[in-house]
């Protein structure tokens, strides 16, 4: 029951009714209970059915957040933080109803400290907005999960994406957050110093907590200098194993690739059709190198040697921004290209991540599984991290197809976990992966539960997420 | 009261007496209560007075750890994990007595996964032991806090050291741990996949927890490829500000220095005398570059340009291992060189860390403070991280000197915190910095307390550390 549907939770009708009245009074036009607002705030971007909140409040400041938390806490009503709604595991659903807290108006960039390579933003700032703002400073924020997600949402799901192999995930790029807790108090989890040993790492606790421990009100991020030169290229391999072996060798040699993405033959075919390209329809790596006029060619040459050793015919790269953009267009449009293979069907993305030594094996077994069960599912992966997505295309109205997809996802999750990997490399747990938490983390799940209970004893923050429901 | 002395905590005499009997029975020769064993296990490597445990148990397996935890939990008796005793803030003291759990016999390297650049070790493995073991694999573990500390201790204090600027701190290099909790259960906090979004980041919670949440039983670490070439050099500047400005520029330009260490003029003088060198007695940066025959010279040249811009006369570097070792010898011996300035005196190391834009200012103000108060205190810093140590030399038997040192430390801590920095960049809180936690983390301290209480309700794990005592 992880692909299409999740159970509703218990509803505190009296509390919800009271909170609706209070918030209407307090927030006026900034509190909405209309059907379309509620639907927009429970759109899960996957096959998971929407579970609507009872109202949507548009917060504009930390004071607003505190006010909403206090009202919800007093009446034991859930609140679900909402950024842009691009999460993929039902994180913005409201299985027990309650209030969606929309952060899109908390989108101020509070400070940019260029000398320290950091900035502080409100949770509703999107990554594109931030990079647009930073452009003149010569700095950029590197994490790119694909969607133009909010920084608050990215922090909350521990997002990563195409260039995590070089720059890390949100865990590595958040220096500190401020958050409003269930008691209505706001805490700051760290300072702007690059490192600290001052007690428990609350920053990393809130990163990836999916809004279940508190509501973020600001995020302090590390920034990077915009590289002097960016090189990009595409390289086809005879089979997936060769491509993965080239990735392993690249990582082991310490070549600081900024992106190294794997597309399987079906994905390349989809991309050719969608983006008007003529790439060989073989397993292909897309690469990007960040550096200087001296170092980018060195990196590219080192990679070419490795690629040839593993059966690539050639490796063409370019530092011309227009050409590079054209080459990478296929990768950037991979999701829509896949959907275009069968526009009438629904799409569901998996998110397994394994140690890179097991990547070739995991991808090959998954491809065989897809073939054996007659599924349509292109594969695209952040190969340098051992993380790959299969985009399953299926008819969500046909229970048999849904069942087939469910069974496939379950096999894939077991396969990844058996290889010392995870069911979720970057999408988070939400509702979709909660059923696998016990298998993956074992008794550590009780430790997580103890922390949740200690910080949010009434379970008002995003209930029904991360932890398996009865 | 942070430099010389800390309060004793309450003692549970009946419980301690019961536990001593049970552990003697269960562990025989592996449980010791003699004075010399107890003294060795409470040596704090600072001015803080020793607070002895009542007994020392030498554990050899996770099963041993579970057994000890169960006995201690049943009788509400503290247990204090002990690695090599090189911590600097009284982390191994036993203010309420109890059992020191010595991990030196849990020193097996359990697995090295060369293809995945990771390994799993028991907590008692030291970093030198690990690197010795890894040598033939072409890999190394980069974190170097100076002392030959245990990996368990390094994880627990969130250690870093000279090359954190390139490779990060323990927070960035621990993939997962196993830990025995207060309930006697062992959990595993993560898997070997490079990234994961599977729930709360318990790995980072145990890294830096100083043994207050549980006892580590294994640590899975990231490894790095040994660089093809290492270059090292030394560069004198006219003043501290120029040296710091060169560091800021180096970091901003994205030059991937592996080490960039600041020594002030007094420290250089001490090093010259101690190591038989003739370095100009000016503020000096020690650098190391990791890369290839192509990239190391590029990095060194880029740095030279920056250094000249900020008033350095020249920058000499070498890739010859013997010459490099000689140059770096001064840095490696800095602590002992400082102590040799006045061998009859005690030494106390501070650990402030500020955003690098504030480093020059913080160091300059601290130097002025040292001068104004007639203190002897060379400065050495991990400049790329904004972290610096002053080694105060004072007579620990003279209450007036102790008071003077205390007052200086307090001013330094306030200064660092006021600059959005921390009182502890890498040494941890222990007992020595507990008094500053409230000032530094504010209401987040209550959140830390709530987590501590949730995971260790009887406060048996390393009590009296991190949290300020009444």
TrEMBL record, chains A, B:
Q: Which Pfam families match?
A: FAD-oxidase_C (PF02913), FAD_binding_4 (PF01565)
**What keywords is this UniProt entry annotated with?**
FAD, Flavoprotein, Oxidoreductase, Transit peptide
Ranges of residues in domain FAD-binding PCMH-type: 49-226
Keyword Transit peptide assigned to the entry: answer is: yes
* Gene3D superfamilies in alphabetical order: 3.30.465.10, 3.30.70.2740, Vanillyl-alcohol Oxidase, Chain A, domain 4
User: Which GO molecular function entries does the Swiss-Prot or TrEMBL record give?
Assistant: D-lactate dehydrogenase (cytochrome) activity; D-lactate dehydrogenase (NAD+) activity; FAD binding
- Record's InterPro entries? FAD-bd_oxidored_4_C, FAD-bd_PCMH, FAD-bd_PCMH-like_sf, FAD-bd_PCMH_sub2, FAD-linked_Oxase-like_C, Oxid_FAD_bind_N, Vanillyl_alc_oxidase_C-sub2
**First-level EC class:** oxidoreductase
Q: Which PANTHER family does the UniProt entry name for this protein? A: D-LACTATE DEHYDROGENASE, D-LACTATE DEHYDROGENASE, MITOCHONDRIAL-RELATED
Q: Which family does it belong to?
A: Belongs to the FAD-binding oxidoreductase/transferase type 4 family.
What's the protein name? D-lactate dehydrogenase (cytochrome)
